[in-house]
Amino acid sequence: MNTAVPPQPAIPSKVALPDHRDAYYGGKWHAPKDGRYVDTINPGTGESLGQVADCGVADMDAAIASAKAAFKEWRPVPPLERARILKRVAQILRDNAGELAMIDAADCGNPVKEMLADATIAAAQMEFFAGLVTEVKGASIPMGPDAVNFSVREPRGVVGRIIPFNHPFMFCAGKSAAALATGNTIIVKPPEQAPLSSLRLAELCDGLFPPGVFNVVPGGRDAGARLSGHPDIAMVALVGSVPTGRAVMESAAETIKPVLLELGGKNALIAYPDADPDDVAGGVVGGMNFTWCGQSCGSTSRAFIHEKIYDEVLAKVKEKAAYYKPGIPTDPATTMGAIISKTQYERVLSYLDSAKADGARLLHGGGRPSDPKLANGFYVEPSIYADCTADMKIAREEIFGPVLAIFKWSDEKAMLDQVNAVEYGLTCSIWTNDVTTAHRTAMTVEAGFVWVNETSKHFIGAPFGGYKQSGIGREECIEEMFAFTQEKNIHVKLKAPK
C-alpha cells in the first residue's frame, strides 16, 4: 500500500493578482456600464490592491440575460459530460492552489497557509457533485397495466449565488458545483470586500463551459438585490449574515423563488465534567477558528464548561490560545490573520469595550497586537473572556470576530436552556465520554450540525445547515444537489390492445 503523503502545493513568493477586474459573463469580460470602480483593500496592510468593477442593476441584467440564453444550451448536456467539466475545474483548483491562496490571503486577510486547504476542499466538492450527476433521479408510481406514471428532476434555470468574504475562492467554486452539475447556469456575486480570487477563477475557467454558464459579477448591495429579485433568476443561494438573508428572502419573495440560506451563528460548545480538560481546551480554542479571526459562521463562540473542570480548562485554554498570533496574511508562518475591513474591525473593538463594561473577566488578549509591522492592518488579538453571563452583549450577539465568551455551569437544564435561548442554531460541540449524555444532549440542542468530542470540521456528504435563523436548507450533501432541481410528474395513458 502506498502511504506516501502527497506534496503540498507551493506557496508563491508574491501575490499574482488577476489581470481582469470587470464582470465576466457570456464568456467575455465587460466593463461596468456606468464606469464605476472601487478600490479593494488588503486588510493586512491597509494598502489598495487596485480597483474592481462596482457593477449595478444594468450589469446584472445583462449577465442574467446571458445566463438565461446559455441555459438552453447547458441543460441538455449529458450529465456525465457536465461531470467531466467539473472534474477539470477541480484539477485547475489543485494546480493553482498556491496562487489562489495567496490572492485570498492578500484580499480577505486569512493566513495563506490555511488558504491552501480551501483549494483542496473546493476541488473535493466539485468532484463530489460530479460523481452524483447520475443520482439525480425520479421515481415511478405503479398505476396498473393501463398507465405509466413517473417523476423526473429538472434543473431550475439561472441560479444566483452570493458568497461571503471569509473563504472567497472556495465558495465561488465549491458552492457553484451542485447547481452546475444539475444543469443550471450560475451567476456568482463575489464579496465586495474580497472579489479578486473569484475573478481569477473566472480567468482560469474561461472556455471550459459554454459561454454564459458560469458568470462572475462583482458589485455591492444594488447588484445583490437585483440578482435575488430578478424574475429570470430561478433560485438564489446565500452564505452570509442573518440580516442579508432576510433581505434576500424579501427580494426573492417578489417572484416566489426558492432560496438556500446558510447564515450566522452564536454557537455553543458544551463540556461535561467527565471530559478531559486538555481535550476540552483544545476544542474551545480550535472551535473558535482564531486562524481566520473567528470570521466563521460555525465558530463556537460560547463555551459552557462544567464547574468541576472549569478552572483547569481555563488554564489550558490560555496556554493553547498563545499559538495564535496576528501576522501578515501572506507570510506562510502566520497563524492568525486580519479582520476583513476597517468597518468590521471597529465593530469587533466595540465588543471588547462592551465585554469590559459588562464585567466579563479577560482571560487572554483583549486588544490590538503591539507589533509595529501590523500597525496599518486590521488586527485584533484572540480575545477570551471568562465568567460570562447570558445578559452580556458578547454572549448574545454574533460578533464575527475573535471574541470568545466562556460560561461556568452546574445545572444541566439551566445550561441547555441558555444554549438554546439565542435566535441562531447552526452548530454545537459536545464534550463528554458518556455516550448516553452525548446522544441526549445532541437531541436537545437546537442546532443543525453537531460534533461530539470534535469541532470545526466539515465532512463531504454530511448535510450542513442551521436551525432557526441560521438558515434554510442543507449544503455539502446530495440534498444540496436536489435543491437545485425541481420535480416534474409525467403520466402516460397506454392504449388498450386491439
TrEMBL record:
Keywords: Oxidoreductase. It holds the Pfam family Aldedh. Gene3D superfamilies: Aldehyde Dehydrogenase, Chain A, domain 1, Aldehyde Dehydrogenase, Chain A, domain 2. Residues 29-490 form the Aldehyde dehydrogenase domain. InterPro entries: Ald_DH/histidinol_DH, Ald_DH_C, Ald_DH_CS_GLU, Ald_DH_N, Aldehyde_DH_dom. One of its GO terms (molecular function) is oxidoreductase activity, acting on the aldehyde or oxo group of donors, NAD or NADP as acceptor. It comes from the Bacteria. The keyword Oxidoreductase applies. The keyword Oxidoreductase applies. Belongs to the aldehyde dehydrogenase family. PANTHER family: ALDEHYDE DEHYDROGENASE-RELATED. This is Aldehyde dehydrogenase.
